[in-house]
Design goal:
Length: 456
Amino acid sequence: MPGLNSIMDTSLSALFAAQAGLATTSHNIANANTPGYTRQDTLLAARRPDLTMVGAIGRGVEVAGIRRIQDEFILANLRSQTARGQSFASVDSALGEVESIMGSVDNDHLGAALSRFFGAWNALAQPTITPSMKENVVAAAVALVDDMHAIDESLTVLEANLEAGIELEIGNLNRLLSQIGELNRQIMAVETGGAAANDLRDQRDLLITQVSAIAEVSVIEREDGTKDIILAGRTMVARDNVTLFETRYERNDDGYRLMLVTGDNKQSVSLSTGRLEGLLSARDVHVARVRERLDAIAGKLIEDVNRLHMQGRTLTGSGLQFFTGDNLHTIGVNSELVANSARVATGRTTAPGDNELALAIANLGNLSSGADSERTVNDVYRMLLTDLASSRSSYEFMVENQRAVVATLEAKLAAVSGVSLDEEGASMVRYQNAYVAAAKVVTTVQAMYDTLLSMV
């Protein structure tokens, strides 16, 4: 039969268990608003009983450990969906900037400048050609070129801002990876001794989630508690060994382009979805595509107008190019025409009233200027604006949809891992009652000791 010492030991184990449970509950309440904190639970287990002649008599309770309440499947899904949402948001933001640069279909400054340019040629093609009409053609051309250059400069600034954003995100990514490596080292040191590094694991999971917003990651947990972080098929964090990303500039047809490489072998990296991939896609695909189409429009305008104008003759000469350059950045009005608008040709002869070329150039606004024989310069440009608006609308929809998906997953994860103050309050009362009851048992045993001693 168990003696008073055994009963006292059982009661004390209940006191310690209640204290541990209350301490964990207090820790949960204190971190209810801590970002990334995962609710913890005290694991209790019955001690091995004493085997007596009358049967097994229990010896109390022991604290088996403190566990984190986490759902790795929901967390991994949340990281993946967050990465997709951040990628869409980066592209959507860039497309919004391009829209503000280009204007809308209903408020289109470059399209209006094109119309004014062809309208000036149409006015010049009417009977009674006057010097002021030629001046209007040159002025309209200069205004058109200025508008194109303004768009080109704005796109260049946007591209520079995107590159600055890319460099910033790479710096953030490297910082987070380094911190994860350091937490791996700390967790490995703590858990090697048999303890659970719950709070350190929370901090590491929060950092991994922040990394996944920049670039989607794969995570592999080792037996020693450390986690390997894999990006773009490369292991960037292995225990406390960290490989960082770097940037370098590679020459291409457009000059130099910022590239993302790993710090070990300097090989180019193609990241999966995330904010960084969205910035790269915005720069290399969406903004580049708009610039390419604008270059094509400017190049075709230069080619078609020059082809006709170089056939013209004036009293001061012939065969003069109207535009210089070959794209959006280099387009310009021939300086000789700016200095002397009388050199603007209206016909192939110097005969008074010869307006054949003026009519032909004016009709470029109504005739083909691309591979599609049914589309004019204005049509091609309008199609660019329409496609841009359509792309922006699609990405706005995807961003909103991803926000809803992420919000749903966050709510599910919070239901599992988040701290509920109501639940913790109930746990606090439960542990308090257990402590009070165990204390009464201790008091009773003390009284029994007193009785036993008084008999001696």
